[in-house]
Design a protein that fits this description.
heterodimer; A: mainly alpha; 8 helices; B: mainly alpha
């Protein structure tokens, strides 16, 4: 039994921005992100028989993750670059109504964010998705493993390695150096 | 005792370093805004869901209207092995008989091909099969048929007269004479 229309409407209202942001940061392509959001929610309506909110969110995360990975692989097969550093789609996304929340203005005004997104784009697709799910969506490793499949320890290691790459890209001096006195 | 590093740097080892990286990366991600999903995408999703709802209603109504029990046709019983063997054997025999008839069919005599369908042709064909030439076969056939006809005429006349207790009708006698004249080389 699938969800009722009222449940779906509520799910769409509360989660559409979160899923769209996730897809946008993973794919860095507005059109692909829109397709992922659309397909994710349509699949949820047709196939998701979960009754609890947590299970519904897990379904959304799993579906969006799989669709993003498919989109990246599809672009690889067609020979297209996933991300064009000279034309960052994230900078062109239509932002919220207020200027303070406009991601375009924020991206232009904050180099750190741009560096972060560029470094994120260099990660392997699955690692990119795991990192966004963990740091942006706030999912635990266990929740990511449940949503995307795999072992919790494996995902933890991959996120840890990806975090090191992001950390270096952000330009901070590694704090591991021990200054011997 | 000399310490290998300053005491205030101890916390920078291991988990503390990870915690710093975690904090830094987390803060960077925390600065990323939540981007609003375009209204056009939401509208497309709702339209697709609406279409699904209409389709589901139509399908459910059609299923309810067509919910009568459908009786399945009984499958034909499998034929026994003996039956299949019998059919095969019969087909084989028929094929063998047809082949034998084709191969053993006698060559048609020359006179059988001409337009004579009376008894002479038939008997001549029999004489031909006995190894005689065409002329002798035909002559023997005519002589044999003439004798037979006379015998038949006589015997049949006697039989009929005895059976009917009166002479044969003229039509019967005329028919017999015509047959005899044909056999003896009359109209061919």
């Amino acid at each position: 039994m699938t969800m009722t229309r009222a449940t779906f409407d509520e799910l769409l209202r509360t989660q559409k921005d979160r899923v769209y942001s996730y897809a946008l940061y993973v794919l860095r392509n507005r059109e692909d992100a829109e397709d992922v959001v659309q397909e994710t929610f349509i699949r949820a309506w047709r196939r998701c028989d979960a009754q609890e909110n947590r299970a519904m969110l897990a379904f959304l995360n799993r579906t969006a993750h799989n669709l993003c990975i498919d989109a990246i692989r599809r672009r690889r097969r067609t020979g297209l670059r996933i991300v064009d550093p000279g034309a960052v789609d994230v900078a062109a996304i239509p932002g919220p109504r207020t200027v303070a929340d406009d991601p375009e203005l924020k991206l232009e005004s904050d180099d750190r964010r741009r560096v972060l997104l560029d470094a994120l784009a260099e990660l392997p697709p699955e690692d990119r998705s795991f990192v966004v799910l963990h740091y942006f969506q706030g999912l635990t490793f266990r929740e990511i493993a449940a949503a995307c499949g795999g072992q919790t320890s494996t995902i933890k290691v991959r996120v840890h390695r990806a975090r090191g790459k992001l950390r270096r890209a952000l330009g901070e001096t590694p704090s591991t150096r021990i200054q011997e006195g | 005792m000399t310490m290998p590093y300053k005491p205030d740097e101890v916390y920078r080892h291991g988990a503390t370093r990870d915690a710093e990286d975690e904090q830094l990366v987390g803060a960077a991600f925390g600065s990323l805004p939540v981007v609003s999903c375009p209204d056009e995408v939401v509208r497309r999703i709702e339209q697709a869901v609406d279409r699904d709802g209409d389709a589901a209603t139509t399908v459910a109504a059609a299923a309810a209207a067509d919910s009568k029990t459908v009786r399945r046709r009984a499958t034909r019983p499998r034929q026994a092995v003996s039956g299949r063997l019998g059919i095969g054997l019969g087909a084989g025999l028929a094929a063998a008989a047809a082949a034998w008839l084709l191969l053993a069919r006698p060559t048609a005599p020359p006179e059988a091909t001409v337009a004579r369908t009376d008894g002479v042709t038939v008997v001549a064909a029999a004489a031909w099969r006995d190894g005689n030439g065409p002329g002798r076969a035909t002559r023997e056939a005519r002589e044999g048929l003439a004798l037979a006809t006379r015998l038949l005429q006589r015997s049949e006349q006697i039989v009929f007269e005895e059976a009917l207790a009166k002479p044969l009708p003229g039509a019967v006698r005329q028919s017999l004479r015509r047959t005899m004249s044909l056999v003896q080389g009359g109209r061919g």
